[in-house]
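REVIEWER CHECKLIST
Item 1: Sequence provided? yes
Item 2: Single chain? yes
Item 3: Sequence as submitted:
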Amino acid sequence: MTFSVGAVDVRPATPADRPTVERLWLMFRHDLSEFRNGGVSQVPDPDGTFRSERVAAAFGDSGEPGEAGDSREAGGWAPYLFRSGVRPVGFAFVRGIGGPTRILNSFFVVRGARRGGVGMRAVRDVVARHPGDWEVAFQDVNPGAVAFWRRVGEELAPGEWGEERRPVPGRVGLPPDVWISFRYAGAVER
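Item 4: Structure as written out by the authors:
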């Protein structure tokens, strides 16, 4: 059966969506495992899972202040689920909801739904829900991410987005992350 992505529904993920998001998280981490970050292989834990503290934080059970849905806290998180019809096609985790800068902490679109505009439509929808200053980190070793996030910067803030390299906190020896930053005040002409 061939799958064709039609309209993409982006909505806040609920606790009932968590099992779906956790499965998508495994795909996301698997995709990233092909990139040797600082010469270090990324392989699953002994139980076949990958580290998932971001999932816990996004759904509010990390034990840290400013958890999911608490937009009053600078550290507030918001998980989103992307669907095409009834099929899950991706997710995003936003942190810093109540702060001066929102951070697109994790963003994923399944391989079968890529290259058709799903990612751009989803990121536009997520960012539009939280106008203001944004930052997104990615790694130079991931050429698809490099091209995608630079395109996002240019489409959402034409000529007014920035890029810089920053050390990874607490991870001496790793190459710096690439960060893009932009301000999104509202609707962007398509």
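Item 5: Key structural point noted by reviewer: The first strand starts at residue 9 and ends at 12.
Item 6: Recommendation: ____
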